[in-house]
Design goal:
Chain A is an alpha+beta fold. The first copy, chain A, contains four helices and five strands; from the N terminus they run ββαββααβα.
Chain lengths: 113, 113
């Protein structure tokens, strides 16, 4: 579970993987496994949330890190690098960008749940 | 605010807009305004969450709808269409896909907050 809000002390990675439909589930599994075995032990890790597109052509990791420096340190971690290499072999393109949340809105009946 | 979880009854739109850095804030403002004035009155709307990439080149809308049919009805709404046309004029490319959440993980100290 993760919360999206403008007042959280996090930086957000939205990483969009383009895949063939045959590889989609395998990539989603690999990202989940990388999170559970490597990423969530690294300093500054907050959350990872793996999404599979209904059309079969994308996998998105919506991940939160405490600071940009924590994300950059992850990129230099040898175990994380090994997982990222495996993921890149399953995808035809990878579009990682870091974001800040600038606006959120929620339906009233959902907020009241 | 929004919650990402595997057990929610929602479909997720991740819409990635590629922009020039000069247009990024304008597009983020336009999407926020479209949410507040049109989208959040439509049936099945759950949440919209606008993100600005730190490198200036992307805007992401992470939005939740109750069902695929609600999202498709929004695409046919004349007021929503007008906002989408304005947004497309500010972006060099738009990559909307619908997703399901298949895995989430959160740092223990965050979950306990």
């Amino acid at each position: 579970m993760a919360t999206i809000a403008t007042d959280q002390d996090v930086v957000t990675l939205v990483n969009v993987f383009t895949v063939s439909p045959e590889q989609q589930q395998r990539l989603a599994d690999l990202l989940a496994e990388a999170t559970a075995s490597v990423m969530n032990r690294l300093p500054g890790y907050v959350s990872a949330n793996i999404h599979r597109s209904l059309d079969g052509t994308r996998v998105v990791n919506y991940a939160q890190w405490r600071r940009v420096e924590d994300f950059e340190a992850m990129l230099r971690d040898p175990d994380a690098q090994e997982h990222m290499r495996s993921a890149s072999k399953l995808a035809t393109s990878i579009e990682p960008h870091l974001y800040e949340v600038v606006f959120t809105d929620q339906a009233k009946e959902v907020a009241a749940e």
